[in-house]
Amino acid sequence: MYYNSALLLADAEKLGISLSDDALAKFDLLAHLMIEQNKTMNLTAITDPDGIAVKHFADSISALTAADFELGARVLDVGTGAGFPGLPLLIVRPDLKLTMLDSTAKKLKYVSSAAESLGLSPEILHARAEEAGRKPEYREGFDVVCSRAVAALNVLCEYCLPFVKVGGCFIAMKSAKAGEEIEQAQAAIKLLGGKITDEKSFKLSDGGERNLIVIKKISHIPPKYPRVSAQIAKKPL
Fold first, then answer.
1. How many Cα atoms sit within 13 Å of 199 on the Cβ side?
2. Does residue 114 contact residue 106 with C-beta atoms inside 8 Å?
């Protein structure tokens, strides 16, 4: 196999997630597709069987423990990159109406091809988050938004909370302790109509700490947000 299925099964059990034989087979195909594509495109530095199982697959599906993903929920993966967490989420929960957003067309072409090979049908959205977040068809239209993007929480919230419908939630998937980030993001979260309702900390088989910060959308976002990327970078909320 192209990934360590025993490690994935062990971590899934810790998380309380059941994986079918069909899902395990799809994970193997996804690992194979990613490894092959990585030979000609810089998708990921993690290509060993253990790393794929834990850092890509188990880490991605951990989001399912942070919120109530109702049957057919509309879910957005912001900054999907090589397809994480979106593709693993869809392997485990093919009922989800998943949109995968990224600004890099080459990566999305691979993600689209991989999804087709897996028999999955996500919506592929080539756009910048701050631009898509202003479009009526996406603004405040998702039940759950997830992101593993590497950005400070206050910055990530301005990119992601505009997509969350009132009553829905944003799951910020962090690897390290997030206490300082949470403190620095409190004003931004409130301004953008959110409220932190949960923070889950746990360890996977690699021994690394993971943190899922759950932000519920409690009120509509002010029309001026999200700002353009230059403003977000220059003057974070």
1. 14
2. no
Of the pLDDT bands very low, low, confident and very high (cuts 50, 70, 90), residue 179 is: confident
DSSP reduced 3-state for 57: helix
The pTM is what?
A: 0.97
Instruction: Enter the DSSP assignment of 227.
Output: -
Q: Please choose, from the candidates 75, 78, 213, the residue with its C-alpha nearest in 3D space to the C-alpha of residue 144.
A: 75
Q: Looking up tokens 């109509």, which residue turns up? A: 193
CA nearest neighbour of 146 among 101, 176, 106: 101
State residue 183 phi and psi, 5-degree precision.
-60, -45
Q: Is 100 left (phi over 0), alpha (psi -120 to 50) or beta?
A: beta
Q: How far is residue 233's CA from residue 150's CA, in Å, rounded to a whole number?
A: 13
pLDDT for 180 beyond 90:
no
Question: For residue 173, what are the β-bridge partners?
Answer: 212
Element (DSSP H or E) covering residue 214? strand 209-217
DSSP 43: -
